[in-house]
Amino acid sequence: MAQKTTSKKVTEKEIEIVDPTESGLSAHINRCYSEAKTAKAFIIERLLRCERQRRGIYDPEKVSLIRDTGGSDIYMMLTDIKCRAAESWIKDVMLSAGDKSWSLSPTKEPALPNELREGVIETVISEANAVAQQGMAISPLAIDARMEEIYHQVTQALKDQADNAAIRMENRMLDKLQDAKWSDTMREVIYDFVTFPTCFIKGPIVRKKRTLKWGKNWKPEVVEEIQEDFERVSPYDMFPSPNAVTCQDGYLIQRHKLTRASLQDLRGLPGYRTDEIDAALEQYGQSGLREIIQADSERNLLEGRNNTMVGTEIIEAIEFWGPVSGQMLIDWGMQDQGIDPYREYQVDAWRVGTHVIKAVLNPDPLGRRPYSKASWESIPGAFWGLALPEMMRDVQTMCNASARALANNMGIASGPQVEVSVDRLPDGEDLTSMYPWKIWQTTSDRTGGGQPAVRFYQPNMNAETLMNVYQYFQKVADEVTGVPNYVYGSTQVSGAGRTAAGLSMLMENAAKGIKQAILSLDHATSEMLGRFYDHLMIYDEDKTIKGDMQIVASGVVGTLMKEGIQQRRNEFLAATLNPIDSQIIGASGRAYLLRETAKGLNMDVDKIVPSPWS
Questions:
Q1: Which of 227, 324, 448, 605 measures 20 to 30 Å from 542, CA to CA?
Q2: How far is C-alpha 26 from the chain's CA centre?
């Protein structure tokens, strides 16, 4: 990103001279961004190596060594196979049709509001007075019993109300997630999850979107609506604070690519300064604004974007989430929000070049940033985790080495090696031409030893040994990754895997290995959905969906054999179909069992079992 700064050496120390036209807030964001880029230099190389490994491309230094030896550059796509298998497995768990990997659950003991508590007391007092007026004696134990009875009725009513509110809130969230194309976002996140050390989900984000509505006589109408949105953020574009462990530590910066039109559309929106946007458009509107950071060109090639530096339509921006001093906000122009110049405030700020076009206080009541992250294997105390390709890098290296050796050996052993005494051949003899029934014209051996002028040698074929080496490390990949080959339909299964029951047992055991990875993704989605729930509780005007609830992630449970779960449900339904159990479960409990069973069969539940509030 273009910066109006220069530097000079003074007593062996480099001092940054800041452009006087740049605000203190802009300079602070620029300093944080520079620190984050420096700290992420090694991580960017890890990201590139993971993506190269999945796409079957050797690292540059390895390509140089292979070319020096003149051998085969074959690359076995074992990493991509494992990643695609894990990706499909997770999608099957978290994005199954008619199912979801989370649910809303009301608190077990809903708090009794003060007005209801006082109403219980007033009701008991009123009943006691009525009994006293009839001349009947009132027992304190009877009053306590009546108080407990009414309290239990009110509490049960609150629980029922909370259950209904949880169902309504869950449906509201599902509806908005569907409008935001949550499934598409999660597919991209899952790809990052199995490919890179860390993946990122951003949301909820409030955006103005153009949507198609149907008016009178089904006439299409394009309207602009404020909607909640969610997005996947590329790991390349996230720059955490050097000492951060979570997305809520220190500061966090996201890199954006805007167009002139999208920057123009921000004029007049809350939190944005129109004069700063106009200044950025005037400075970068014609030439664009690009910042080339480490490995940008290779990243673009890996992602299928060539000639990305051609054109001037891109204007880069960075989004800063973190603490800044109140004085910086005041100097920038935030005057009407009671800012204390000596306090630190959590803000969301956007910087284009040297222009801060937006700065608002973090709108989340708890000061949370709208980012969540997950890793295939988390490292305690570290922001970036361990990627699936990194876990099997040694295995991939050995498989590649075996395959290259096999290809080279097959090429060398495919025909004879020839030794020729060139001084015994006539002039013009083509040494490179060999064909059946060829006649070699030679002179006699001058040494008198009678040695032939042309000798043939057949190199040994070591294909079987090299294949055994390859297959051994291919099996090691199953253990290292926890994604065995029978998960993605391989027929090379022995022992218990040859029977349906045995394969089911192996699949269930394999699921235990991937549970730990999905736990991390479950935690990230639960964080995001928790923020979404809080957002709806604050801004949605429908009071019937509100209540004290919590997000319950169930993705790990889904990794178990779904057929087995469905079978157990059917057995439970049959076992409880008797008069005694029916009295215990009741109609509502039976309806819940039927609804959950129908969900597992991908049926339209509402057409089979009436909803609790219908």
A1: 605
A2: 30
